Amino acid sequence: MVDSKQKSYIIKALIPYLIAFYLFWAVYSIFIEPIIEKGPYLINLVGGNLIKLGAWTVPVLVLLKYLFKEDPWDYIKLRKNKLRGLVYGSLYGVVIIIYVTVSRLLTNGTLQFNPFFELDSWIGGVLLVGFTEEIVFRGFLLQKFEEAMGSKYANAVTALLFLLIHFPKWYVNGNLFIPGFMVNSIAFIFLFSILMAVLLKKTDSLLTCILIHSANNFAMFALGA
């Protein structure tokens, strides 16, 4: 049971982390990443992914270990219930691939499915994205907010934060002021985050969220999103 003093400590610790994290990622996405993408392919492939691991995953593990005095891998739920996480993650991963495929078919009337998209999208957008992003949002922030404010508000706050982290990239890609894109994307991402929170609670394994997130991105890239 977390008392009021501990709840206050959690919020006070999370606020500077969130400010630094969002500020860095906005600056990186808008000003630095486009330069890296125009450079040599190998630097883009390796450097971009290392920067994301360094900015997203490493700080969370450090904060959990040294600020919150937790075992990072136990806390983010990657050490136990691996089989349950694998089963649920695989099952719901297939479901979300089907959902994205049907949605695209209904929207466009046709399908162009290509699983052999670019290597950098495969590595950064599929294989690593579930690991980097789910550790931050469901493994760390969701659980810390639950300790501070309960599940109901924690789910909503985490979903909002997960939504906001996409805005810099949308701005760079020119999608931020396209009403149809924004309405669909905001609704999907917010509900996706809520689903991840529910499944994390049900399976007690972050592996579930990682697999589903990667499956979703695979479908997006394979369908040309």
Automatic annotation (TrEMBL):
Q: Name one GO biological process term.
A: proteolysis
The UniProt keyword set, sorted, is:
Hydrolase, Membrane, Metalloprotease, Protease, Transmembrane, Transmembrane helix
Q: Where is the CAAX prenyl protease 2/Lysostaphin resistance protein A-like domain?
A: 122-218
Top-rank taxon: Bacteria
Q: Which InterPro entries match?
A: Rce1/LyrA-like_dom
UniProt GO molecular function: endopeptidase activity; metallopeptidase activity
Q: Where are the transmembrane segments?
A: 14-36, 42-64, 85-102, 122-141, 153-171, 177-199
Protein name (database record): CPBP family intramembrane metalloprotease
Lineage runs: Bacteria, Bacillati, Bacillota, Clostridia, Eubacteriales
